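Long-time lurker. I teach an intro course on protein structure, and each term I like to show students one example going from raw sequence to a predicted 3D structure in token notation. This year I'd like something fresh instead of my usual example. Would anyone be willing to generate the tokens for the chain below so I can use it in lecture? Attribution to the forum is fine with me.
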Amino acid sequence: MSGVFGVLNQQVAPPGLGLVLALGVFAVAVSAATFVLMLAGPARWRPLTRANVLSTVVHEGGHALLSIVTGGGVFQIEVTSAETGLTRTWSTSRWSRVLTLVAGYATPPLAGLGAAALLHRGLAPAVLALTVLAMVLVLLATRDVLTLGIVVALAAAAFATLKWGPDWLRNTVAYLEAWLLLTSELGGAAAIVVGRLRHGYYGLEDDAAGLAEASGIPAFAWIAGWAALIGWTAWTAVPLLWPTA
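-- Reply from a regular --
Happy to contribute to a lecture. Here you go:
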């Protein structure tokens, strides 16, 4: 147990400004590519958008967590690609279902803000350790081979970096995680807006449509709420990620 707390409290020197900026630009590029891919599907963007898979797992894990917290449960978490996933849950009430659906787009930016707060204190090892823990919990609801492979690969990468990586690599992976989590849902939220403008508002099965059905509140209100949350977390987290030295 002391070893676990030792890892969570282990500090490393902050990275340089150049690395922080480069990782931030890369994360924004991943989000932009995800937006383009979700709308048009050009294959040339796929190598870049695959970096978004961490946020997809966290998005689906957010659904699962809120379902359990509000008294429901989880049948299965499935990641169908780096950009899309599906979580099958059951809920005990209407508001349990609403909170479960809200959590998807809310969890990655909030997790990114939490990672930024840890990195501000030099706790990159804690970010990696919590990543491993999160992936292990997702594995409990994994039932298909693709999702199993993705989640195990993410956990193994974080664990190997934590266990054997030098401090610069720990910082690189942890800061990249934070940036990707903070920016990942920008592309997804924008895509569901543009999708509605291009294809109409009926017959949709995304989180916003589910929330509109469950709550009676229009889908665009939920999308606006997610956008505000993403903006707030980014506004709060960026100063924490900025090197102080």
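Some talking points for your students: The first strand starts at residue 73 and ends at 79. The chain has a mean pLDDT of 89.
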